[in-house]
Amino acid sequence: MRGRNVLRQPALHFLLIGAAIFAASPSTAPRATPGPTVRAPIVIPASTIAELRKEHQLTIGEPPTTAELESLLAREADREILYREALLLGLDRADPAVERRVIEKMRFLYGDDAGTDAEAFTRGLEIGLHRDDIVVRRTLVIKMRLLAKRASVTREPTGTELDQALEAHLAAHADRYRQPAAISLRHVFFSTERRGARADEDATAWQARRGRTPPADGESLGGDVFALGHELRHQSPQALAKMFGRPFADRTTTLATRTWSAPVRSSYGTHILWISDRTPARVPPLSAVRARVLRGYRAEQHEIYLGELMVALRSLYEIRTAPVAPATEADA
Amino acid sequence: MSALRLVGLLAALLLVPSPHVGAELPTQDWVRTETRMDCTAYEALRTPFFGETHLHTSLSGDSAFVRVRTNPRDAYMYALGSAIGLPPYDPNDMPTRTTQIRRRLDFTAVTEHAEFLGEIRTCLQMGLPGYDHQNCIDTRAALAQPLGSPDDPLPPIFVAFTLSTVVPTPMRLPLCGVDDVNCLTQAAVAWQEIQDAAEEFYDRSAACDFTTFVGYEWTNNLAGFNLHRNIIFRNAEVQPLPTSYYEEPLVEGLFTQLENDCVGVGNCDFVSIPHNSNVSGGLMFDPANGDGSPLTKAGATRRATHETLVEIYQHKGSSECDPRTSPNDELCGFEQLKRVNLFAPAAPDPNLPAVNFTRQALKEGLRQHNLLGANPFEFGLIGSSDSHNATPGGTVEEDFGTIGHLGVRDRPPSNPMTRIGPGGVTNSGGGLAVLYAEENSRDALFAAMRRREAYGTSGTRPMVRFFAGRPPKDLCDRPDFIEEGYTSGVPMGGTIGPVLEKKSPRFAVLAMKDPGGNGEPSTQLQRVQIVKGWVDENGDTQERVYDVAGDPDNGATVDLDTCIPSGTGFDTLCTVWKDPKFKPEQRAFYYARVLENPVCRWSTRHCNDQGIDCDGVVPPEFSDCCTDFVEKSIQERAWTSPIFYHPERFGLKGDIKLGKDPGKDKLKLQLTIGDIPPELDVENNDFTLTVTDDDQIYTATLPAGSFEVKKPGTSYKYKDSDGLIDDVKLVQLKVNSKGVAKIKFQTVNTVLPNADASTHRIDVRLTVGDYDETDSRFWELKGSKLKSQK
Hints:
The complex is a heterodimer. By secondary structure, chain A is of the alpha+beta class. Chain A has 14 helices and 6 strands. In chain A, strand 4 (264-265) and strand 5 form a beta hairpin. In chain A, helix 2 crosses helix 7, helix 2 (10-22) crosses helix 14 (286-314) and helix 12 (237-244) crosses helix 13. The two termini of chain A are 47 Å apart. The longest helix of chain B is centred in the N-terminal third of the chain and has 21 residues, at 181-201. In chain B, helix 4 packs across helix 5. The two termini of chain B are 28 Å apart. Chain B is α+β, with helices and mostly antiparallel strands. At the A-B interface, helix 3, helix 4, helix 5, helix 7 and strand 2 of A face strand 1, helix 5, strand 13, helix 13 and strand 16 of B.
């Protein structure tokens, strides 16, 4: 049977474990049992489609394209699936938010005839007041997602296995954790503002005069005033771009160290650079960034888990969508 | 004669050409209060760090109300360059928009509203006590509804939340339960989440790549006026809970709570940063206590101690100046919010109290200083965004129309063009805070906030240096501009006295254009101005704006249809300026304003993007595309923190004659005090003068009553050719009719063995009763004399 096969899938299995964890006491345990459950087809009526369109128009400012509408419908179906499954798992039971909502609705409908809170709640459920209620629905969908999140953690490895998983995650997303390269430099600045077209010439002349003599500590090298001074230590390309502009920063990465450079242009003029030291970018060891990597790993695992779960659940439902009318001028 | 001195004198005789004497690096004025690695990138000359000190995420009630779902972690990821989601969220809870910063930031403080911090969690986290309360049910129902148009009334529950921060005796909503326990418990959880996120993204490695600060916003909306402050903590030692308007509805109460929790407690320290005085109904910088009682000297000092910075600009407009009160400053029209309070619609030419604006507040502060003996409004200036989208530094003009700062409030595209708040057409992308620090660490950046070495920008990133004091006239021609700026002057945010006696101090300003990057333009500079505020001889405040560099008529402009700029400006501007109207007895401040060439305002780009044609049919919701209600082009700008001129301090000239034989040394000084304060009373107090370098060179104390009173209050003399008291030969104090005082001081021949025969820094300190001031400058060795540098 189809349903039984699905229940063997890891994602759903873990979801059930998650549901068990979620339910604090036996009395509120999920009522779902393995076995055939009748799942009615999901029907998305024309009225829902119109609403989705309207909401898209309201929030985005224009009607959805066909592709966007398809995606909206798919998401609506997913949401309905999560909602239905939540009901099957009994997540609406012992939920103070749902209870409160149903009681409020009963009181609104029947006033004092609604009886005690308990009576009102029971009757409310019987007549399906919790169904198609925007708050209940949203609550349950969020609850299902939370559940999936917790369930995904239950299949997380421990000990050295976890370390290996984190190492792999770090390696796969090295860009996210990489520490930038660093450059230490002295520069002599020839301002375009002050020298106009002569800036390049003056820079070249300076370099010719200087020859190969390295800069001494504290030596004033001449040139023009610069807002950041003339010596910068251990700066990342990012920081250099902030100060001198991106092309200059890129250029520094290709210059030889411990020699006077050819003239380099920045946003402000021409520079002769002496790069004294260069540290390459590197991926830090796991120990230095473990907390961040663990967070990233869990987020990724959660997404994978949720994806598997949705694939499994979608196979349980037949989805019928009302014919989609093409977008008209009136929609806009 | 000491051997050292002999060597020095010989060297001087040989006329060894010294390169420029005396340039020295500024001293680090902070210590590390936390465990972290030292930064490999450490510059004693300090570099500018660009960041954000005002930012909200979904933990703030109003962000949640506009459907923002990102959290402090997302905010830090955004600051570092990651894309984050923006509302509206689709039914699957996926964001329908994403945004990414164009150039990352160096630091960020997430500052959630302290109010509603627990309420929002209580209402959105299932199963929490209070989750079932009607307030929360209403909140969730309101959040589940599509957002209406700006004209629609707000859901009643949002109104109820807001109203609770508007009344003078505020109370939390009933959902918080008995003694507010539900909400305070959850506020503590949210506060922990804020601290955890700050810790996670603070780079404690030697790379010093990014700094986070823990902070919050105290949100006093009294009568709809904005009296908000951001509280920024120095390190991870913070208050157990943020202080909200509910607990402390007066700013003095906020300070008391902060002082109890955070002053003298471990390494805790904080600054308070007010913002949007432009919608404060004159209350933010009203020279009075929050309860209306008059300000005292102690109260003024307390204000200035805690509130070292003020946001001059953010997404709710400029708080610099008002065209009405500054009619001679044609640039005051920049980004006026045009609202009389937070909830009023924007309207043409609103009648706002003058003191709503920081320039007027700075001026009023000078006046209060003269009245009280302390300045409550001696603050520096920064910009920030105040984004409610978890997008710190998301200030770029090109992006604001599509991204905005207020969640779904900025959708659909007609919403940003409305005059109805929050947000709307008079809002903007906000600005940046720039701090001068040796390294990118919490202690270093916090020290910059304390000493006000900071400036604000309207969102772009020009680099600006500003020094005042005695910088040489040719400073702009010298590559050691910065060393010399620090050596012979003070940087932005500092204070000076009459360092050149009765002559104007010199002001050096160096501005370099934003280098741009990643689609952000590198707009050239148009000009640099110095804005002066002062108290005149009648006790009235005055202001004047001077163009000091660049060219206001450079003809640069921007095509409003294509937003392509034309004309040229300047890559760098540099000048040394003197105040032509300087009066040593008049208290004053000076700040630099750096203008870029014009570019399109965000709304102009937005209207163009929406295809609005002002010659055709204009949809009513886009009508302000084609009115002059907001400017079509703007000049992005930077405002430095002011340098404050304190006339009660003194400048001097003097020399120390180094005798050939022991006992033949002589000290001669002439001190000029700009405006002699009442506490400098030589009739009833001891008069103590001390001269030090790394050792004490000389000190003398004349006991109270030593002076001969020539004319009470204006002329005093002490003379003793034998120098019986500490070898003092002559002290003469004369005060002119304007309050400018001259003190002549001479010793008889004496022994000054600690006066090193070399050019070096010497401090001269004068103490009389409560008067205690010091002049610190280089003294040059010339022949056998040490002479104070001009």
